[in-house]
Amino acid sequence: MNTLECIKTRHSTRKFKSEPVAKELLDTVIDAGRRAPTGGNLQPTHFMVITNPDVLKELVTLVQEEYGKTEVTEQTPPYMVNIIKMSKEGKFVFHYNAPALVVLAHKPVLANNFSDAACAMQNMMLACNELDLGCCWVNQLRHLQDNERLVARLRELGMGDDEKVYASLSVGYPDLPNGLNRRELDIKGNPVTYIG
Ligand SMILES: Cc1cc2nc3c(=O)[nH]c(=O)nc-3n(C[C@H](O)[C@H](O)[C@H](O)COP(=O)(O)O)c2cc1C
């Protein structure tokens, strides 16, 4: 697959097989993320690759419990209402039961954290497409980046004392009839102005 085809057909996967991702494939995805450009070439992103099922379950429970504490108000964005409701019912599985979760952490003082994380995420998502893996950007750990419980647990798992989560990616084999998950996105937004 060439690069433009890979960009055009990349598509988020939200249903995964429980089968663990082959180590060499996961390593290739992480390598693609590490090769992404970073502001000032500082290469500050810490890639935490979680494949331990008990740890993944624990994070799901933590997210459910923390989101479940939120009360729905008129200000709650519509997409959050269902997530909060499902969390209160213990049904919200933020990483879609993917067998691998790549958590990107950065030192909070760096100005380009979001941009650096986004470049790494896009590289990893394209690598997944090339390798017939499914993936989905899942933002809940980033939303909880200042949550004391999450921070404490991730520190136990190896996140630096001065690091915070900026993005995370679920990775696994798509649980779909043909085993692949590709499509061309219908582009209705993202306007372009050419000034010639
Ligand atoms: C910054 C960002 C945050 C996202 N957060 C989530 C998320 O928390 N859960 C989810 O299911 N998808 C999430 N997505 C995936 C988008 O919903 C998805 O990319 C978009 O709907 C376009 O669909 P496609 O990826 O299949 O082309 C996120 C994507 C981005 C770029």
Automatic annotation (TrEMBL):
The keyword Oxidoreductase applies. Keywords: Flavoprotein, FMN, Oxidoreductase. The keyword Oxidoreductase applies. GO terms for molecular function: oxidoreductase activity. Pfam families: Nitroreductase (PF00881). PANTHER family: IODOTYROSINE DEIODINASE 1, NADPH NITROREDUCTASE. This is NAD(P)H nitroreductase.
